[in-house]
Here is the input.
Amino acid sequence: MSVFIAIVGLGVLILVHELGHFSASLALRMRPRRFYIGFPPAIWKTERNGIEYGVGAIPLGGFVKIPGMHRPAPSDVDTQFGRVVAEAPSLQRPMSRLRDALAAGDMEDAKTRLDELRENIADARLSESAAAVAEKGLAELGDALGPDAYWRAKTWKRVIAIFAGPAANIVLAIVLLTVLFMTAGGKATTTVDQIASETPAAASGLQPGDTIVAINGRRVDPGEISETISSSNGKPLTLTVRRDGEVVRLGPVAARRTEGGTYRLGFVLRGEGLAPPAAVGEAFRVTGLVTKEIGASLSRLVTGEGRDEISSPVGIVQGSSEAAKQGADSYLWVLALISLSLALLNLLPLLPLDGGHIAFALIEGARGRSVRREVYERVSVVGIAVVLLLFFIGLTNDIGRLS
Here is the structure.
């Protein structure tokens, strides 16, 4: 069950990311064409104001389609209509005229030639599958040639539309942290709040409501409890607790090593919430510290260090699952940190990541003209290779931790 909760949480983070892109592009009048919960194919869909909303058959996050992400190229004609012309050779001539218009960079003429091709396709005798391919190709090129296409927008609009995805994850992380600081995460106490099942704490007989007085006979304050357990390195511990006015000794019990390498007994201390302004301040402070640490980790990776700090989606789900077992507060802490990590990693200047699109938008704005599609494709190959390398390194680390 905890694994399912972890996967759902990761899906929610992706959905929030895509919702950021969708909301920004809609506000900037780029007219997104589709917004799905999950990935297509659709199991349900409806259309409102020219936007297709749906639920995808692949329940992983969300999907948004912004029209005309790239300036249309002559090769798009062959890509979109290659199968169609095989059934109707008479379409070769109007296709060539459309291809020539795109090669010349005359977008107004290209729109005229696309309309001409649309009329010829309507008159052609095509199979049902070829007709569907033709309809999709006409829609794709029509979007790319339309006035609300992404590539036509001003640089600042393009940057905002893309940055809105990571920004949504950053905002979500700050909101989650603020809620946690206002409730249980503001100031720790020595009172036990939650006990995770099948953990050393549960086996020792520790109960919610117990107040921890001492560990191994030494009195501890709230800040020392976690540190004492973590530094035990798995050696037996004896807990002295106050329960219903009586002093009870529990153990000895050995802390268990977690996936992150720390030792935990498997309980959560009750917290005292902070006032809203203080909670917001703490949320921003933690966000800044985590951002700095992630940046340092990436820097160490560039220099050949920090390889063991990378985790794949498998490790993320595993870590979230472990946190879910420890209670809602722990799970939300981890979810907030993953949301922030997702945002920062997406801002790396690599295509097809958001940071790569932002970098190219700025380059094209400075040049005053679009970068050729071939450049996008070549840079994307490099970016995908780097992302896959990071994935495999993370997967190797996760397998090593599980073994």
Q: What stands out?
A: The mean pLDDT is 85. The longest helix spans residues 373-402.
